[in-house]
Amino acid sequence: MSERKKIVFDFAIRSSPAILFNFLTTPEGLTQWFADHVDSIEDDYKFSWDGSEEEATIIEFIEDHIVKYKMEDSEEGEFLEFRIEKSEISNDTILFITEFLEDYDVEDQQIFWNTQISRLKGSIGASN
After folding, report:
1. How many CB atoms lie within 10 A of CB 63?
2. Exposed, middle or buried by CB within 10 Å (0-12, 13-18, 19+), for 32?
3. How far is Cα 122 from Cα 116, in angstroms, rounded to an integer?
4. Do the Cβ atoms of 64 and 46 come closer than 8 Å?
5. Which of 52, 78, 89, 110 could cross-link 100 (Cys pair, CB 3.0–4.6 Å)?
6. What is the 3-state secondary structure (H, E, C) of the chain?
7. 12 lies in which domain range?
8. Does residue 88 form part of some domain?
9. Structural domain includes residue 83
10. What pLDDT digit, counting tens, does each position of 33-58 carry?
11. Is residue 16 part of a domain?
12. CATH number at residue 15
């Protein structure tokens, strides 16, 4: 059995942290780029893609900075985190995505996130 590792992807996004955070935490925002359909009741979320569903609970929330989801089927200590930081040098808004993957999944997941972030930028109006 191989060990899952904590992997961090990062993307520069032309957006204010507040606008970006809305796309990471609201059902309306998340359905524009992350899932086909999203329902939420308080901190519990249900994500739907092509007939499959995954449930998650927010385990950390810092307005305009961090949202951390504990996915229903994830191992103890694993999570999906979206973290927003402003670069002090370029003043760009940087989105860090942290998740846990097998080594052989990292390349495919990079392609997945590149596609999803492209959709996110289009939804925000922050292409490039």
Report:
1. 10
2. middle
3. 10
4. no
5. 78
6. CCCCEEEEEEEEECCCHHHHHHHHHCHHHHCCCCCCEEEEECCEEEEEECCEEEEEEEEEEECCCEEEEEECCCCCCCCEEEEEEECCCCCCEEEEEEEEECHHHHHHHHHHHHHHHHHHHHHHCCCC
7. 5-20+58-124
8. yes
9. yes
10. 999 999 999 999 999 999 899 999 99
11. yes
12. 3.30.530.20
| Domain contains 81 | yes
Amino acid in position 55: E
Tokens at residue 31, please?
Answer: 């359905």
Q: Tens digits of per-residue pLDDT, 50-100?
A: 989 999 999 999 999 999 999 998 999 999 999 999 988 888 899 999 999
Residue the block writes with tokens 């040098």? 89
Whole-model pTM above 0.85?
yes
